[in-house]
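Morning, I've got a small favour to ask if you have a moment. I've dropped the whole record in just underneath, so have a look.
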Amino acid sequence: MAAQTQALVSAKWLANLVKRNLVGPRLRVLDTSWYLPMMKRDAKKEFAQSHIPGASFFDIDECSDRTSKFDHMLPTEKFFADYVGSLGVGNDSHVVVYDASDFGAFSCTRVWWMFRFFGHPQVSVLNGGFRNWVREGHPVTGAYTKPDSASFTATVSHPSWVRSFEDITNNIATQEFQVVDARPHARFRGREPEPREGVRSGHIPGSKCMPFFEFVDDDGMMLSTEQLKKFFEESQVDLDKPLCGSCGSGVTACHMVLAAHLCGAPGAAVYDGSWYEWVTRAPPEHVVSEVQSPKT
């Protein structure tokens, strides 16, 4: 399958394979929709009503480290392998991920990154997501048949693709890599509240802001490589130097990782705990905000 290594695939390409009944062990389609509570959407319920034929639902919260107090942190290799295996994904499967967000891409880039982190580069993002799939008039269904389980072996060959709180703390002094925050500018600057109650907004010292929704156009389609490179340049982020994405909880940070990959800079890392871990654990001087913090 020629498109196995392509980070982006088109709705037209996937629709052709769906029409030919080729979704199966060699091609697995995953609806990875996930929403913040404030969005008031039920991803599983929506999947049960309408999804791409042959798709299975990938639950970011379920496929995570359930022992962590932070949301959807990376699971162990075995847990990931067992989880995706239960969705019919084997080591020879080409995986196509999408979500049904209004942005065209919201949570799917996180799952794209997870597969790559666990040693499975044969994964692609459906450009424009379910939004564009529907707009182009491709078929949808509410019918679901659970795929036969497959054997999947997860291997972490690039542990540096995930960064810890300690890594980010040390980097404030060493500046070994650039931290790129995918939250909106107002939250990054501390001028608008975080969507989670009781969490201060602001940013990590020295980080740059590249809001995740600016990696796509008004139709939810990924910007061209040239447009992406211009966005990095205007954001003062150097694609020739190591990168690490951050956001609220490690989901939309992966938009930057995908964009860098498309620009020829693969291997950008993700700060898995992201802002919600940082603001919980960092000293006050490492929580940068344009708004004075409330007195405690």
